[in-house]
Protein 1
Amino acid sequence: MNVVRTTDARPHLAHTARAIAAPVSRRVFFGLSAMLFVASAVLTAVVCLSMSAAGDMPMPGGWSISPGWSRMCGQTWPRAAASFVGMWIVMMVAMMLPSLAPTLWRYHEAAGRLGSARAARLTVWIGVGYFFVWAMLGVAVFPPGAALAALDMQWAALARAVPAATGLVVLIAGMLQFSAWKARLLACCRGALSGPSACASGGAGALPMEARAAWRSGVRLGLHCICCCAGPTAVLLAAGVMDLRVMTAVAVAITAERVAPNGVRVARMIGAAAIGIGVLMLARTVVSAVAANG
């Protein structure tokens, strides 16, 4: 008697379904990330161009101060701060999302065993925690930035020193790119978030705990990122926080050192360029001062 052996095709079908669903999930993730990037970039450009149309205030020393650091007519200081922080968050999304998206995707892939919807929610919490830290940085930098802008408008001698100070900031930021501290933080940012730490609990009731863990992971990543980006962020704040050219250059530099195959080498190349620009800026301020005194 012949015996007909049958095999259970369900594992094979499940594997095939996952293989088909994975590229779709990847396309959806990066498609949504691209849409968020474009929206934030367009909004940032609109805000910066509107401020540029309002007119920067010329200052002694041949530079101009952005209206983003001061109150508009009839605006209170709390509203001015809220407006700055709102613009700062949108700007940070546009600048940091290209380098953050691959990290978020690695986390999403590792969390995929929880189910696509659950993994998506945890990935969103990572992003929320990450950009919360950047928002807090905007809250922290506005008061000293606004105070310094007010002092520049009152004291001409201080205003004349700003171009030299900006060149010095760019020079120091370039030197930081060669430090072991920078290399260590960059390696941490490039290899962060392999997966959710609380995935083992598994139950639906554990989701709030997992969400909190994901949010804390995003906060930790944001803190590492702020430290790693201290030099480029200082350049952004010193050279023109509402200047589209400066923002684009800083965003390209941060993205390149995060996603390039050899991030440390790219970071050092960026540092060499920053050092050269800083030296040129300092030399120009010296020539301008000599010409003014002569």
Note: Residues 24-293 form one domain.
Protein 2
Amino acid sequence: MAELRVGLIGLGMMGRNHARAIREVEGLELVAVGDAYGDPHGAAGGLPLCGSIDELIEQGLDLAVCAVPTGLHESVGLALAAAGVHTLVEKPIADTVDAGLNLVDAFESAGLVGAVGHIERFNPALQSLRSRIAAGDLGEVYQIATRRQGPFPARIADVGVVKDLGTHDIDLTSWLAQSPFASVSARTSTRSGRPHEDMVTASCQLENGVITSHLVNWLSPMKERLTVVTGEKGAFVADTLTADLTFYENGTFTTEWEAVSNFRGVSEGNITRLALTKREPLRSELEAFRDAALGVADNTVTMHEGLNTLRVAEAIIEAARDGVVRDL
């Protein structure tokens, strides 16, 4: 496989991970990195360290990964599109819908691959879960509930928890159910003294009728990444921190305990922890980006999809601000 020349812009925590993973993916050659603030994690190694996106582009790139702060996604992405470079932009696609739309237009008009780094789609537990839902293992899907909470990450300065963390859950929920969001309602809280929200609870409905709930915050001392999908045959629980997937089957046995049998819901059945092949999501995401650039296959999260996710995120923020249900 011929090696594609890759440039990386943004050398924070996520940029450091990208630098390592790019070096590990067959067919990719990391040729230069860039960050106006230097290289705090030593990601460059012996590669050229560029101080601007223009300097990085001058290295002669086929592909680029944009891991700069969200507020810079638009300007960096537009420069890469103008230079004819296929680009993977870290999520969210941009800080505003208008900025995201500019990126979509730029990459489409140039005939370039523009992808967004919604990495949860490449988590083995969620990939297996989506396949099982599509195969009918749950029957009709009733509800998708997510919990994503943990301590505040010092890397975030320009957006709140909805656009930073919540976009993971918006994207993965729509992707799992294969249906867009129809309406959203939410409550947010600001407790850390920053200008943006640091806690949200959202209640939503998809176009296919599935109801969803999302608890996201930066105010918890314990880290949690759970997705629970409940349907007519039971429930799947995916833990994306460990890439574990567990199936809780509806029971078929008669309950003889009167106090319990008075509840006319489902009964507990077998619980199965499913064995999965666990590949690193970041490597899988970069392989999908490589294949899209080569025209082999396109399993990336497109900029159109990233823009739709950002629209839902902004609707959640507006719904919380105004205390109303927002239709999409």
Note: The domain at 4-118+282-300 is CATH 3.40.50.720 (Rossmann fold).
Protein 3
Amino acid sequence: MIDWPQALVLAVLQGLTEFLPISSSAHLVIPSLLLEWPDQGLAFDIAVHVGTLAAVVFYYRQDLRLISIAWLRSLAGAPSNGDSRTVWYLLLASTPVGLTGAFLGGFVEEHARNLPVIASTTLLFGLLLGFADRRARVTAGSRSLSFGVALFIGVAQALAPVPGVSRSGITITAALLLNMSRKDAARFSFLLSIPVISGSGAVKAWELIQSAEPVNWLLIGCASLVSAITAYACIALFLRLLDRIGMMPFVYYRILLAFILFAVWLA
């Protein structure tokens, strides 16, 4: 059972890293590997993910209202438009990672939560993000969403369960490689987190019910609130600075982090 300081540190880490292209799963695994912290448990995992889910839903509440209304109207026979098609794009792009989690989740948990894997994926996918961002500067990002684009992003997102890959990082990378603008890539990536986090949370909630794990409701409630506030601030600041700073600061951070992790592993 984790204590309050550990819970608050992990909640802040979850909120900061869920939407930045630096891998939240890696940053949550690293403290337990380096500091030998106890596993935070299913209830805590669910709580901090609920917090980040609440943050992105609240931030995009107007967008979600518009696309939901347009989608429901299209189901009732109204002409399809960009807003209604966005829902289908999100559902399509969410499918591959759902299949990965269902069939390979246990393998990833058993074999990929270690320093060599995290260091390697942090470096490799950080460099790929840098390549995509530099390419996006040249191509100027003129491509819009389509079913083919959504499928490509979804297939890329299937790698996200591996610690160090970064769900937001790999989806933004894929979008930039397809010549989407940074803001359009980030918006679709963040909207795509909603079905992904919801599905993952539902699976973990079912596991929690079956496990009968004891729950410290005050601790996980505070952790959820901390992760929500941190995640909301992170989304707002990231989108505000995106065109100004691009992805390279996160690429440099990933490269530095990877070399530190390799050094710790080899020490």
Note: The chain has a mean pLDDT of 91.
